[in-house]
Amino acid sequence: MSKFRNDKVMPRYFAIALILTLTGFAIIGKAMYIMTAKKQYWTEVASRLKRDSVSVKPGRGNILSCDGQLMASSIPEYKVFVDFQAGTNDTTGIHRRDSIWAEKIDSICDGLNKIFPKKSAAEFKAHLLEGKHKVQKNGTIGARHWAVWPKRIDYNTFCEVRQLPIFREGIYKGGFHWEEYNARRKPFTTLATRTIGDMFGAKDSAKNGLELAFDKELRGTNGLMHRRKVLNKYMDIPVLNPIDGADIVTTIDVGMQDLAEQALIDELKDPQVHGEMGVAILMEVKTGDVKAIVNMQRAADGEYYEMVNNAISYRCEPGSVFKVASFLVALDDGVVDTSFTIPTGCGVMEMHGRTMKDHNWRKSGYGTINVARALEVSSNIGVSYVIDKFYGSNPTKYVQGLYRVGIHEDLKLPILGYHPPYIRMPDTKTTDRAKYWSKTTLPWMSIGYETQIAPINTVAFYNAIANDGKMMQPRFVKQLMKNGEVIKEYEPVVLKECIAKPQAIKTMQTILEHVVSQGLGKKAGSRSFKVAGKTGTAQVADQHGSYHSGITRYWLSFCGYFPADNPRYTCIVCIKKSGLPASGGGMSGVVFHRIAEGVMAKNLKLSVEDARDEYSSFTPDVKSGNADAASYVMSSLGVKGQNPGQEITARGVVPSLIGMGARDAVYQLESRGIKARVRGRGKVKSQSIYSGTAVRQGMVCELILE
After folding, report:
1. Closest to 338 (Cα-Cα) out of 376, 305, 306, 364
2. Closest residue by Cα to residue 287 from 550, 140, 4, 490
């Protein structure tokens, strides 16, 4: 017999079914009510709900000097605004804060005047009232986005403005709001500014220099955030965190850069020089690291600024510094040696219908000289005679030799604006006059004309001579770093293992030493160490390409290396000026001398023991915590009074640890049974237990170091 009792179960079933049915009808009814009677309300709510995917910019990496000093960094800047409709009653249109504004506006304006003294409090008041009473297009009164100050401000200034009355109440109550920008700043201002590079304002877009060359590494990777606006408030939901850019460590040495810049500017400003433009490059011989690169140009106000990176982009006829390449080709080919004699005569010689002159032709020239002496005195006739004699019938061989020794090498620099050298091959069939090869092309090319070479190529060539023939690519960046760790190394790059035969390189090194010791480059030399190099003076065209515009322009240069017996640095100095006097050795050579002397003095390290003699009196090293040394110094100076170590040596009290290093401070505490906790680095700035406090068991003293 079944236990199912129909009379009890069925009523329960019908009751549950009825409840579910009524609930269903209620849900449908509510939905119909929302879709009809409440449609307008929910449509307005939906219109005020926005969902956007917002790209989040990462922090741009820093640019550092070779020793870790900051050369370019991103810092936040702000433009500040006020919304005068904040706190408005939507139904009545009455501003709730009118009375508060009337009461506080004077104190706000006084505060703004203290922060921005260029504008008076009365001017600030007039400006704010103008925004407060401005009529909007929809008829409401009060600007929604009124600028408090027209320019960007830094973070500290922003914090000061934010603390003013009303402004401190936030966006929705006080109406104070802001726009944040990433600003690029250079702590050393103009030092190597064209090489470091610039940014396009708030666009975070690189403009030139290393900023542009390594933009991808510096920029990092954007993040993603969902931003929802519900009524008048935003909700930010992070989806993908941004990855900050890496820091790049350059090869530039701030001290050497400053030294080279000051030496060059001082010479450019000399009344006898009054230069239009100046370039200086300092390179490390073994690695090719560019330690300093200066690009100075005279502006309309008469001062000198870095405007264009002429060191890598200004191609011109290099002048006599090119003679070294010509003779190196001849020495490498074995057509001459240093004993080969040249009849320069009285300093004037006709070559294929044109007159070639030496700089001293008015003093009867140099007569018969050898190859080495021709470079020492920078004889135009001496160089052009040799090249024309041995390569006149086959100029292609000479130009191929120039390519071989590296003066024509494309350095493949990462910095935008670099122009490789232009040294043309012989071509007598072209209709382009600039490319036509005549009989006079070879002798004039051999002394630095009819070619186009930037200073960076010249210094790289001389650096190869200093480096026993190995040509290095100029290196501007050594490392990429992230969070203090090296993530990529940029190793030195060898462009040519040997630009010429070893004997030819050794011979040229000796000749370049003699150019400075007994030739025209004496002003570039030093009494403390040997210098090798070559002077250069060339007439250059004006901005219209003319050499005969009434004012003669000169390109003065000196390129060399030091110390000559163990080369460490190669340097080139170029100056562009108008009119006489004009001397590569006497003007550019002087700048080279100052740079070389300064760099070697900076690297000179002498032991204090070298200065000791029988009359020397040395005082011991005294620092906080060394009671015996302090007592000795005080007594030696005749200072009487309390023993300076008395407090420290008292074992029952906490000593004064201010100014001590961490090691000494911790020793003083632990020797008294006090546990030490150290925060920071450097010297002790403060201690949590005052000096003189009696020592108790279990004491813990926190030390703040800075």
Report:
1. 376
2. 490
